[in-house]
Amino acid sequence: MATKLKLGHSLCTSLLTRVARKQLTVRNINTTASVFAIEARWTAPYLRDLAKRKKIMEEKGLFPQDKRSEYIEWNYDAELYAFGKRLQEEFEDEVLRAALTDASYIRQEIQRQQDLGVSSPALMMSSNEELSDGGAKVITDYSSKFLRAALPLFPEEGISAVTEYLSSEVVLAEVGFGIGLRDLILCQEHPPAPSTAARALQAVVGALHASSGLARTQAFVRDFVLAHLSGKDINSIWKVEDPMKVLSGILARSGCGEPEPRIIFQSGKNTIQAVYQVGIYTDKNFIGSGYGETVGEAVEQATHDALRRLFHTTDSTTPLPFGPAAADLTLKESSNLTLQDWSLEKAKNVVSC
Amino acid sequence: MSAVGRVQQWATFGRMWYLFDAKWQNPFHSADKIKDILTGTHKPIYHDLNDCGDHVVVINSSDIALPGVEWEKRVYFHHTGYAKGASWTLAWELHHKDPTMILRKTVYSKLGKNLLRRGRMEKLHIFPDDKIPDSILENVSAQLRQMRPIPKRLDHYTREEVEKFPKVVPAQINLHLIGVPHTSI
Amino acid sequence: MTTKTWRLFWGSGPARVPLQNGVGRYVQQLQRITFKFCKTHGGSLGMREYIEKDLVEFARHNPGVVVYLKPRRHRSPCLKAEYLNGEDDYISTQKHTCEDIKKWVEYLRCRSGYPVEHLINYHHTDHPSIQGPWTPWLHRDHKLNVVQYPNEELSTAHKVKKTATEELMELYEKQKMLTEMEKTS
Q: How do residues A132-144 score in pLDDT, each as one tens digit?
């Protein structure tokens, strides 16, 4: 009996000391996460598993996604009013409605009415196809003019590549979803496909053109579509192929000598972590440098750098004008120099704004 | 990451290979300098989680100069782990056995006691003389400056210099100077 | 919950903004807010007061936000905010006063919709340096590229003070000059 009591007593004290230690222990290899009320041991795997299941269900189309417009608290008129106000733009109601109506939605509605027995369905709706065509034109037109004015020495091939990137489905869909079109678009599928969202954004631009005129529309394109370029490296969107050939062509047309790559620095030549810096020179004048893990890579990077310096698209060039700075920009109608024509002589005549 | 960003990262974290001539250098002072380079603390990008240490190739480690009575009094302890396995080796004895050992042990003791220590020691290449394999010499991209001047011995002076040197007392006594032919005095 | 644990659960990241907001023009990210409340229950007293006094003012000042009222019998009141990036935020306002709700509405109005997480930096840029990247060989003399290692000139320690020999030589030269001057005079 006495031993039992003693045992019970010692158990009690050990428990108490464990509780006391809970507040005092320093974390070491023997303490478990639960001592510090950190549930990470199970939380992270659990969340990971949930995410995995969700992904599988989404792939199979089993994951239910509520349509916001099916909620009780939904007022499409109020939503459309707020949409314009939020973007600080004035839209004509009818045009905006048309811009947000996808052709697939109208087809779906007609089909539904026919299924219900209406022989000639009368729908007072128009789809956004025309508006989106108009909008797409404004976007590409303004983007190229803006980029030509902002980057006067950038070759025309680059301008068209960047414009193409800006009017690509991915960018336009991202912008469209970013200004809240996800819930507003009337279309067959849910959630709206990126292509639908891109078309709707183009149509919104078209609707703005119809409602408020070209100047407002261009400002809209600049603030929402072109702003996508801020913080992005324009050279990674358009990459010159065979840069050495292009550079030698430019230098030959400009009356300079052949580009000559020379190693400026090297370290750890015989190791896996070798590093080289190569400079490009023409007539003993430095025109660019690049790094690389091999000499060949460094030469290629250096050539790209020389071209960037010629085209004024290095990291240190002035960023694209947005906000108040964009108001002073005179748009450039005529195309920039092409890669075939680009030379230092011709570049001197280019007026930069 | 763009191609430019990738090579920029490669260059910023590029490994330098420094050469250090340990001739007539105090290994304990030199180790302070070498340690900084092995850990990368001399770089503006240094951070605890950065792996930015550089390589150091030390030559002429057999010609190090220990201060004071360190050659006779400094003792290196080793224990084999077995009973009676302890041994104490004097600095001059250790240097005789392996002329790179004193510098290596000094740098090792100066490095932080953490898991990176062994990896950092791998970046230290010590050679007893100035004969380095070409594969290592080709990697070298810079040289570290020594910390103290190498003293000039009498036999390093030319005969004219010695003759021109002002003598306070005319050399009448037959002095025997090491390494100098008697006739030159 | 400590900061460390919070970070563990809710993550951390740089300050970010949806869709380059503010580069061109600023767009308020709150797109709709729903006030859910009970018309009779005491828990919704503050919410009802807010709706009577301040809601119209709020809606007038924020035409870009769609305001919904959703009365629900005998259920606790709450605010539900929806943002342009598709995220939503829920705040229970059970037994909150009118002033409290006003502050919560203001909080929801100013948010970007991204989850509240630990900021690893208060500023962020995609172009960290317009001067170009730092490299270990920045501002290095290009002459060093053609140097043969080991190089004595690069290795020799900087001279800090004169040696005794040099000082002695200087004294001697001075003395010699003085004696010559005396002779000529």
A: 999 999 999 999 9
Q: Is residue A24 part of a domain?
A: no
**Closest in A265, A273, A301 to B4, CB measured:** A301
Q: Is the same domain home to A46 and A114?
A: no
One domain, residues A136 and A251: no
Q: Is residue A320 part of a domain?
A: no
Average pLDDT score over chain B = 91
Q: Do A293 and B10 touch (CB under 8 A)?
A: yes
Look-up of token digits 């690509």: A168
In whole angstroms, give the CA distance from residue A157 to residue A164.
11
Boundaries of domain holding A287: 241-315+339-346
Q: Do C19 and A85 touch (CB under 8 A)?
A: no
**For the whole model, what pTM was predicted?**
0.82
Q: Using one digit for the tens of pLDDT, what is the confidence trace for C39-82?
A: 999 999 999 999 999 999 999 999 999 999 999 999 999 999 99
Pick B143's closest partner by Cβ from C140, C150, C158: C150
Q: How far apart are CA C73 and CA B47, in angstroms?
A: 58
Q: What's the CATH code of the domain at A130?
A: 1.10.1520.10
Mutate to test the interface with B, among A236, A240, A270 (most CBs of B within 10 A): A270
Distance from A77 to chain C by nearest Cα, in Å? 10
Residue B18: its chain A contacts at CB < 8 A?
Answer: none
Alpha-carbon distance of A240 to A13, in angstroms, equals 76
Distance CA A104, CA A188 (A): 5
Which tokens go with C110?
């100013």
